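Thread: sanity check for a docking pose with fe (ii) ion

Original post by kr_44:
Hi all, I'm comparing my docking run against an independent structure prediction. Below are the sequence and the ligand SMILES. Could someone generate the full complex and paste the structure tokens? I mainly care about where the ligand ends up relative to the chain.
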Amino acid sequence: MQGIQQTAADTGLYFAHLSDPHLTSLTSVRWQQLLNKRLLGYLSWHRRRRAEHQMEVLDALLADLQVTSPGHVVVTGDLTHIGLPDEFRQARNWLERLGHSDAVTVIPGNHESCAAAPWRGTFSEWESYMRSDAAFAAAAISGPEDLFPSLRIRDGVAFIGLSSACVTAPLMATGALGRAQLERLEERLQETAEQGLFRVVLLHHSPRAEDEKWRKRLTDSRALCAVLERVGAELVLHGHGHRAHRSELSFAGRPIPVFGVSSASAMSQREERRAQYGLYRIGRDIDSGDWSLDIEVRIYDSSRNRFVGGQRHQLLLPAMPSTSC
Ligand SMILES: [Fe+2]
Ligand SMILES: [Fe+2]
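Reply from moderator J.T.:
Ran it for you. Here is the predicted complex with fe (ii) ion included:
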């Protein structure tokens, strides 16, 4: 990948964003494990999703990442189908193929919270991939409230992870962040702005409820958008919609780009729903403090069983007031 000119840049992090791999198999599920909302999820997998989400696509993705070689990878949820303990273990094994937990940041999706389950034996399997850097981490973790918003800082970039995963009624796929998480998010955004970091907010659901179907929306999206409009962010990345999507929020008259990515394992014939991932390279002009963001989309080509280069964008993001040099 050709990067932006780095001559005046003080951060060179090059990272990948993928989402919704839905990589698990449910072939050995027992019926006793499906006596709740998981039954509908299982039937959906049996009828449609197991054909749509293919491990050969994810194998091609891992092979492509070997070539593109980003310094960090973020995964914005829905690694499982119905959030069973065995699925968390399958996903953990796949994450270990993707990379070391220091180089891979994970947040959960709604499919991980299909039904209420104890933290131990489920999300705890991914703890090393989700927890904050040691300086910002809670001493003991027994649930999502101890983990999120997570904060990981890599080469001048602050990855701030949110959890919008919550148990919902049958046929609903909404998400919620909750007041406490939003308050801590605002603090983390403020602190990382004061450090002059490029702030990337990661969440599973789209931050804009109007961009998603009603039954799949983030129910407190207005409160999230209000936080982002008060303290800003440089980039928001999400999944959930299983389609490539771009929108925008704003802070003090400056744009906050929002990118949604399709499922990393989808075989769809429709390009916007076929497997893809994004590569992001960040640069900064030392004199003006303005950021530059070079984005390449890599998309799955089923005829060659490999990922190939797709759309490219370059964005120039004016320095935000609180992050100006
Ligand atoms: Fe999904
Ligand atoms: Fe989802």
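The domain at 14-323 is CATH 3.60.21.10 (Purple Acid Phosphatase; chain A, domain 2). Hope that helps with the comparison, let us know if your pose agrees.
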